[in-house]
Amino acid sequence: IFKFLGAISVDLGKDRIKPYLPTILTPLYRELNSTYAEQDPTLKNLSQEIIELLKKLVGLEAFSLAFSSVQKQANQKRATRKKQRALQTVANPDIAARRKLKRHKNKAETRKRKIEFLRPMYKAKRPRSHALKDLAMVE
């Protein structure tokens, strides 16, 4: 998709690309600022190259205006999501408690995995699962 966005922007040219610039920059900005653990470096490099291409194509002033608007919009979305999460803990304490328990459980599992990785002979205790497949006789 990033290559497609770059090709379309080059094909449209300087004058016709300006109205679509924020729409094109949104996924590129999201990829540049993502903090995922399993992030693909080729995607990040590609998005950086396309941003440089757009900067040369449109000009620094128009690009920076569009990029700052995309940045501002992303920050506003992030802030509203954070505010909604905070309000949900007050409005629905049972859902918040379930989420907190799940987070603590995942944290404990991560800690056990890390211990097993660092010390292979040590096996951390894992909770028993009571799923149907565990009850079946499998050899």
UniProtKB/TrEMBL annotation:
Transmembrane segments: none annotated. InterPro entries: SSU_processome_comp_20, UTP20_C. GO terms for cellular component: 90S preribosome; small-subunit processome. Pfam families: UTP20_C. Residues 1-116 form the U3 small nucleolar RNA-associated protein 20 C-terminal domain. This is UTP20 protein. The gene is Utp20_1.
